[in-house]
Each structure stands twice: as structure tokens, then as C-alpha cells.
Amino acid sequence: MTPAARVAAAIEILDAIRAGSAAEQALTGWARRSRFAGSKDRAAVRDHVFDALRARRSLAALGGAETGRGLMLGLCRRDGIDPGTLFTGEGHAPAPLSTEELAVGRAPAPGPEAMDIPDWLWPVFSESLGERAEAAARVLQSRAPVHLRVNLAKASRQDAIAALAADGVTCVPHPAAETALEVIEGARAIRNSAAYLDGRVELQDAASQAVVAALPLRDGMRVLDYCAGGGGKTLALGARARLSLFAHDAAPRRMRDLPARADRAGLRVTLLDGDEVGRKAPYDLVLCDVPCSGSGSWRRAPEGKWLLTPEGLDQLNATQDQILDRAAGLVAPQGMLAYATCSQLDRENGERIDAFLARHPGWRCDWRRSWPVEGGTDGFFAAHLTRD
């Protein structure tokens, strides 16, 4: 595909997303219809689409419309690319720009439009982050780094770096956790690398690894990952100590890949449904990586900030409270309840912990911490709760 054809494909996909398709669904549908597109073409088109979604408001201002054409025109203008070299109408290129398209477009207005944050969310975002709000919003407009977790049960960090380098993946240690690597070059080769295929490394953000690294684990503990999802933190837990490890999720289908991932990592994980999780209680540690706005990981899933509504945030807060209340009943008397989000919003972080403590006077918070997106990771929050 030519660069212009890739832009045309991105326009098609962005219009499908605007019409209601999820980004991944729209990308998959286009790829199935476009068998001629090679892996590099698919990667380039994906980058265009996600670059546009991360900066949707500011690009729409620059391009004069929130359509696929408007967003890609705005992206060209932002990046200093002459759109006339791509919008030619030749071959599979987008149609030439009209007189109207050439005439419209303006600099984004200062504030939430320039920061690519919805108007209603900006006060919540800025109140949570204070003087950091603008810098954090700017980070969310850019691509996320690629991080790997080294399975120290199978390899040292230096051994993993060497093995990955042999397969064309260049990494350096990341300071957020002793298991963390940042990929500098060759990210697209990770999934075919020997170190990934044999379980020496897993894809996982460095702050997510730091959340697990902060937990006081010891051999023999019964540990439950209550909101396991795909199991990234489950595997990180199991790599740190010899645990009796359990995983649960309100939507069990999210855990469908966990058994194979655990097998690759050399771990045994017991998957539990809603009834079994109570019967197997109590647990020495229950980790609740709760559903949240994802505002700390909007670089990876930029749709989230445009789909979030005030009502949706209220519902997330209610769900977070319910999960904490239920999980507290699963913790052994001397055990720990750990709470985590990939959110930067106080409404999902400290406020939820304070609300839990108000409802449960027999509990206390021993530790809480945030990881800012400006630090080179996703934005995360974690807290440790124990009984008095």
C-alpha cells in the first residue's frame, strides 16, 4: 500500500468508528476485507487510526470536521505534512480536498479542546491532577511505550534483554519495577520472539508491574485476583512467590486465555466462578484491579475518554464500591485487601478508599500510591487495606 492508500484506509475505519463500531472491530473488519494489505500496512493504518483517536478534538479543529477525512487532514496539518501529497484521488488515495476543506480548519481552543479531553471531564481531571493536569493530558495525546515483564522464575532481566536482542527486540530496564523492561526498537517482533513464546517475558505496563511488586507476598499464601481479566496481574503475582493462586472475574470469558498463559509461564492458577470464589474463602490477600475509566491508559485505549459520560463515571464508582464490599468478606482475619485502578481520577482512587473506610470502620488503609503518566508508565493507583 502507498502512504496515501493507508490514509484512505484510516479514513474508512475512522468513519466506521464514528458510526458506532468499536475501534478493534472496525480495524479487524477492514483487515478481513483487505487481504492485499501486508503486516506493515496493517500496522501503519492502525497507528493512523489510534493517533487520530487520541487527539480527536484537536485534530477535528485543525481539519475542520470530526469525520475520517477531517481527522486525517488535521493529523497532516499537525504533523507538518502537505495533505495535497496524499489526498490526490490517484489509485487508492483519498479524493482531492475540496475548496471548502482547504478553507476550513483552525487552531484548537486553549483548554479541554487543545488537551483532547471532553468539556465535562476537564474539571474532574484537573481537580484530580492539579498543576499536573495539562502535562498529563499532553502525554495522553501521544503513543504509549511498550513494556515487558520478565518472569524471574525463568530468566534474569539481563538474560531476557539478551534473548530478546537476538530476535531483533531492543530493550532497556525500566525503573518502575525490577521486572520491567522498556522496548526501544523492534516492538512488532515481540510476539514471535523465543523469550515471549516460552514465557520468559509478558507484555505488561511497568506501573502495573509495580502495583504487584508492592504487595507483601510470601510462599504459601492463598491469593485471589478478584478482577482477573486476561490475567496479567495474576501471572505477575505467581512469578513472585510460591502461592496458592486463584483467579475470578465477573465476566469469566475475559479469563479464557489465562490457562494457556499460565501454562506458558509455568504456573498453576485455579479459575473460580461466582459461587466457587466464596466457597474457597478466606484468602490471605485479595487483589481488586477494578473496572474503571481507564484514564491512566487512554494512550492504549483512546476510545475510553470519548465514550465516558458523567453517568458512566457514577456507575463505575458504584461498581467499585460494590466490589470492595464483596471482596472484604473474602479476606482472612489477618489478611490484606488490595485495590488498584488504571485511573488518574480521585473519584475512582482516594475517594473510593475513603468511602470504603467510612462504611467499614474496622478497616484501615496502610499504604496508597499513584503512578503518573508523566513518569513514563500508564497512570495507576493502588491502596492496601487491612483490619484493625
UniProtKB/TrEMBL annotation:
Domain SAM-dependent MTase RsmB/NOP-type stretches: 136-388
Pfam families, per database record: Methyltr_RsmB-F, RsmF-B_ferredox
Iron-sulfur keyword on record: no
Gene Ontology molecular function terms on file: RNA binding; RNA methyltransferase activity
Keyword Transferase: yes
Binding site for S-adenosyl-L-methionine: 249, 273, 289
Active site residues of this protein: 342
Keywords: Methyltransferase, RNA-binding, S-adenosyl-L-methionine, Transferase
Example GO biological process: RNA methylation
The family this protein is said to belong to: Belongs to the class I-like SAM-binding methyltransferase superfamily. RsmB/NOP family.
Protein name per its UniProtKB record: SAM-dependent methyltransferase
Lineage of the species this protein comes from: Bacteria, Pseudomonadati, Pseudomonadota, Alphaproteobacteria, Rhodobacterales
